[in-house]
């Protein structure tokens, strides 16, 4: 999701003060990690790798860049209040569902596992809660019968880049639309772990199909014995 968003920012002609991405340890543990340095370097943008962006030294590094706006895409950790308070235009993030539905972890995986025919991407201002910030924009995404988590996340990433392109001028001008979220109609989604991938062959064929395609590349995959 992060690469199309970064390309959109670079193509927009705004000054990208810097890119922060995962350090080697965190990258190795994160499914779907994409190295942003080649794209950033091709535009002369500095890249910092970090294991914890909330570390006080990293917060000071961000503060020294004096960003007007922070765009967070594909980051798997909540940003601290100290980071959220730095940019005068706020911090913008994305979540791969039509919020307030499906807050929490692995929303695309869970949507496919449930057999849903659609999900979406939500662009929001980040706050101290988990996926609870004011909504800027939303775009629905279809889930076809043979889509996988990889192909759906590609659609989600394209939707995020499109919303960023559409709303960036208003965000930088401080006039972006925003509306508060209501209560979620569904419980927060739990984190998935590789150990949760074992296939239950007693379920109907469609459910097994959805299970396997919802856990495949770039995730560890479903498995059996």
Describe the model:
By secondary structure, this protein is of the alpha/beta class. It has 8 helices and 6 strands. The protein has helices at 2-11, 24-28, 37-41, 56-65, 81-84, 107-113, 149-173, 205-215; strands at 19-22, 47-50, 70-72, 91-95, 118-125, 135-142. The strands form 2 sheets. The chain has a 4-stranded mixed beta sheet with strand order 3-4-5-6. The longest helix is centred in the C-terminal third of the chain and has 25 residues, at 149-173. The two termini are 33 Å apart.
Question: Reading side by side through the largest sheet, how are the strands ordered?
Answer: 3-4-5-6
The class by helix and strand makeup works out as alpha/beta
Query: Helicity, in percent?
Result: 25-40%
Distance between the termini: 33 Å
| Contiguous helical run count | 8
Report Rg.
18 Å
Most strands sheet: 4 strands, mixed
* Beta-strand content bin: 5-15%
Q: Which whole number gives the mean pLDDT?
A: 95
Q: What is the element string, with H for helices and E for strands? A: HEHHEHEHEHEEHH
**Runs with pLDDT <50, length 5+?**
none
According to DSSP, the number of beta strands is 6
What shape does the CA trace take? globular
Nutshell version of this structure?
The protein is an alpha/beta fold and 225 residues long. The protein is built from eight helices and six strands.
Task: Produce the secondary structure layout.
Layout: H1 2-11, E1 19-22, H2 24-28, H3 37-41, E2 47-50, H4 56-65, E3 70-72, H5 81-84, E4 91-95, H6 107-113, E5 118-125, E6 135-142, H7 149-173, H8 205-215
Parallel strand pairs: 1-2, 3-4
Antiparallel strand pairs: 4-5, 5-6
Helix pairs in contact: 1-7, 6-8
